[in-house]
Amino acid sequence: MKYSEKVAKLPIKENPIIMGIETSCDETAGAIIKNGREILADKIISSATEHAKFGGVVPEIASRTHTTAILTATKDALEQAGLTLDDIDAFAVTEGAGLLGALLVGVSFAKALAFSTGKPLVPVSHIRGHVSASYLADKSLEPPFITILASGGHTAIVAVEDYYKMTVLGSTIDDAVGEAFDKVARVLGLSYPGGPNVEKLANTGENNIILPKMLKNYDGGEYDFSYSGLKTAVINYVHNQESKGIEVNKADVACSFQHSAIDVLVDKAIKATKEYGYDTITVSGGVGANGHLRKTLKERAEKENLRLIVPEKRYCTDNGAMIGAEGYLQYIKGNFADLTLNAKAVVPLDIKRR
Ligand code: KG4
Ligand code: ZN
């Protein structure tokens, strides 16, 4: 019997055990998730130090590193959970968005596992995976809630209306917030990965440089963002000071930039949560690991009497657990792929805009 016919006949299991595989960028990750909520194992192998020498992710290096790390990531996850491949009910894998060559490693590996075990192959959107990390952070979390989607490629305020239906209330009209962190890191001479390094430096500085308010004369959506102007303002400030022979206090630049970049995310998320009458707010994506974001959001949520769910830093940046959590939601709907599954550089968010 053909693989796709065989898996179509399998019953959807209760409390399924799902392996999540993630290789969209520079983390090779394998995790095992029970019933969409419980992390039985979670292994992340990062190739960030390889890329640091080049100032950013080198796609070719990312793909090659995934090829050698994927077996360890998944084997170690099984070992951590005390399970074997036979115990896995489905293999969920990031199909996109991300670097094509990098994604193909995970997709091909997951196909091989699914085919050899005769279990379903579940394609997962990386962005939906980030949102589903919140379900791991608090087992009692149920939609509706507002999430701040803040990663290297996306910046949006999203209303999560149910497990499958989301509405983008506003998003960036140019750069993503993580991208702005990475670019500012470069201007300040900090190494890759930019975000955590800007944060480290910002912690030793003061918020004392006035940077322009974003979208001052913009008449688009009230939940939209723009990070390109802020980034340019930082670059201009640094070059201006240098041309005048004034030494730049890089820590102050980092701190002032961080405040401008983050505070607007927090403001708009709180506003949206109140406008929608929701009582819960969560954070999705790598910038969610930022300490200033976590702290200010906590303060503001407490003040507004809102419940805040922020995944551990490890589950904000790329990981396999979030793919297992989102894989669960797709698995219970029977959203399986056949062995022709391809990697996609871009995956439509499948999230409508308000
Ligand atoms: O979600 P993620 O790991 O990958 C994408 O899906 O893009 O996000 C990566 C982004 C990078 O731009 C990185 O600089 C940023 O998240 N990031 C941070 C921090 N940790 C990661 N930005 C600010 N502060 C951090 N601590
Ligand atoms: Zn990501």
Keywords:
354 residues, alpha/beta, Nucleotidyltransferase, domain 5, five-stranded mixed β-sheet, 11 strands, globular, binds 5'-O-[(R)-(carboxyoxy)(hydroxy)phosphoryl]adenosine, binds zinc ion
Question: If you had to describe this structure to a student in words, what would you say it looks like?
Answer:
By secondary structure, the chain is an alpha/beta fold. The chain has two domains: 166 residues, Nucleotidyltransferase, domain 5 (2-Layer Sandwich); 171 residues, ATPase, nucleotide binding domain (Nucleotidyltransferase, domain 5, 2-Layer Sandwich), CATH 3.30.420.40. The chain has twelve helices and eleven strands. The strands form two sheets. A six-stranded mixed β-sheet has the order 10-9-6-7-8-11, sandwiched between helices. Strands 3-2-1-4-5 form a five-stranded mixed β-sheet, sandwiched between helices. The longest helix has 27 residues. The site of zinc ion has 6 residues, from helix 5.
